[in-house]
């Protein structure tokens, strides 16, 4: 049932609006026998016994949920070659137009990824990114994943456009910096088609890459 005022109009409160005090309104009194200062200090006193919620960040780093959407990482294969094949699907999937990709051709002398193409230029604009994760869903090679790193603030716009060099996962032990030939087989399918005999710990690599990406200093 709607609330109506004396003139028959629907009251703002009936529509869910907050009713503002009018000039001349008498402030409502709390039903307490304590004097006003006692009521006020009572609130302070009660707070002393409540659980402290102060976060001591940045001295104590904030631990995020495991699936937190933080800074992106471009992952590598176990031999160090890049997983990105420069297909631009992540850029097309991005609703904020935050990703810029330009592919390049691998050659026999200069190979950065298995197969024909690699991501020659890769940029993510963190002034636009809304961390929705659609880009990592679109990536066909699981090159692009998101880390738990949320410290992305800066004092100028240019430094918030991250380049490929900043986004690449660091080289883990046993990896070799590209360009170099394919070490896991002669065919790019050796990197993607797996049998129980040729299984590669790519998921473990992804997790390791995420963990290792955290301490990387941003230029
Ligand atoms: S997380 Fe969302 S907004 Fe950010 S780059 Fe990926 S698709 Fe674009
Ligand atoms: S990150 Fe993935 S989706 Fe984006 S260009 Fe590279 S391979 Fe394609």
From TrEMBL:
Q: GO terms for biological process?
A: aerobic respiration
Q: Function of this protein?
A: NDH-1 shuttles electrons from NADH, via FMN and iron-sulfur (Fe-S) centers, to quinones in the respiratory chain. The immediate electron acceptor for the enzyme in this species is believed to be ubiquinone. Couples the redox reaction to proton translocation (for every two electrons transferred, four hydrogen ions are translocated across the cytoplasmic membrane), and thus conserves the redox energy in a proton gradient.
Task: Please tell me where this protein is predominantly located.
Answer: membrane
Organism annotation: Geodermatophilus ruber
List localization entries: Cell membrane
* Statement: the UniProt record of this protein carries the keyword Cell membrane: yes
* Record protein name field: NADH-quinone oxidoreductase subunit I
Q: Tell me what topology the record assigns in the membrane.
A: Peripheral membrane protein
> Where would I find the 4Fe-4S ferredoxin-type domain in this sequence?
74-104, 120-149
Quaternary form? NDH-1 is composed of 14 different subunits. Subunits NuoA, H, J, K, L, M, N constitute the membrane sector of the complex.
SUPFAM superfamilies according to UniProt: 4Fe-4S ferredoxins (SSF54862)
NCBIfam families for this protein: NuoI, PRK05888.1-3
Pfam families the record matches: Fer4_7
Is Protein biosynthesis included in the keywords of this UniProt record? no
Q: What EC numbers are recorded for this enzyme?
A: 7.1.1.-
PANTHER family assigned: NADH DEHYDROGENASE [UBIQUINONE] IRON-SULFUR PROTEIN 8, MITOCHONDRIAL, NADH DEHYDROGENASE UBIQUINONE IRON-SULFUR PROTEIN 8, MITOCHONDRIAL
